[in-house]
Design goal:
Oligomer: single chain
Order of helices and strands: HHHEEHEEHHEEHEEEEH
Low-confidence stretches: 1-26, 31-36, 38-83
Radius of gyration: 20 Å
Distance between the termini: 19 Å
Helix content: 25-40%
CATH architecture: 3-Layer(aba) Sandwich
Shape: globular
């Protein structure tokens, strides 16, 4: 992909008369709500297809499980009561993740600080059971009324087992990123992510975003922006075992690909399943 995808040409602004005050730098809008991003907001078909069983079927979701528990790395026999019991978070070889969502989320990297709240869920949160239910209800309310009961039931069949969100703002205030981790059945995670990828690449609704080296499972898209728009946004989605990763970015146009790609790559590296091939 060429850099022009992330750097659309913007006409040079006309010189302002000397007697006018300077135009302030564009301000990044605060997140509008709890939704995980514009790709999720824009389409009911993603959730409906993945959760109502297009291509996978609820029977499959009920019949399969995450497989036997396999530790991410065999622990050495304890030599003493003080010996380490192994990592407190990570991934098992069967693709299921363990540990706190706040540990699984990418720590605040250098050059960033915690950003604004993502709707009602805060800016650095592991979702409680009640918050996970609220997240599902937020998703359901975004669908046509005739589909809401079916999707709500489908979420109950493939329950959201975990969730976490961390919001970041660059120290120069030019970039805002929100990372969501959503943990549910691996088959549904994979199907949901595949539908997002197909929607973003085939629908014509979005510009294709950057690739993430070493992570072909990641897909990034940008909504079409008006010529000369000061603010642009991007969303990336990836399935890693039983976790769906969603990265939403807003920033001063043109978005800096060289700053966004490492954020997602580092998050996916943190969730890598032992023995998985890129």
């Amino acid at each position: 992909m060429s850099d022009t995808t992330m750097n659309p040409a913007v006409p040079e602004p006309a010189q302002a008369p000397a007697d006018l005050p300077p135009v302030p730098a564009p301000q990044l809008p605060a997140p509008a709500g709890a939704r995980t991003g514009f790709a999720v907001r824009a389409t009911a078909s993603v959730a409906v297809a993945a959760l109502l069983g297009v291509g996978i079927g609820l029977g499959v979701l009920k019949a399969e499980d995450d497989g036997p528990a396999v530790s991410a790395a065999p622990a050495a026999p304890s030599a003493s009561p003080t010996a380490s019991a192994g990592p407190s978070f990570g991934a098992k070889q069967n693709g299921s993740h363990f540990g706190s969502m706040k540990d699984l989320l990418l720590p605040v990297p250098a050059g960033y600080h915690l950003g604004p709240d993502s709707g009602q869920f805060g800016n650095d949160t592991e979702l409680t059971e009640e918050q996970r239910k609220a997240w599902v209800e937020d998703e359901v309310r975004g669908l046509p009324v005739k589909l809401q009961d079916g999707v709500r039931k489908a979420w109950q069949e493939s329950a959201l087992k975990g969730g976490g969100v961390r919001s970041l703002v660059s120290d120069d205030s030019s970039l805002q990123a929100t990372v969501w981790l959503l943990q549910y059945h691996q088959t549904a995670v994979k199907a949901h992510d595949a539908w997002v990828a197909a929607l973003g690449s085939d629908s014509g609704l979005y510009r294709v975003g950057p690739q993430i080296p070493g992570h072909p499972e990641a897909h990034c898209f940008l909504p079409h922006a008006a010529p000369g728009a000061e603010i642009d946004e991007l969303e990336c989605s990836a399935a890693v075992g039983d976790l769906r990763v969603v990265l939403g970015v807003q920033g001063v146009a043109p978005l800096p690909k060289d700053r966004i790609v490492p954020l997602l790559a580092q998050q996916l590296d943190r969730l890598a399943v032992p023995g998985a091939s890129a």
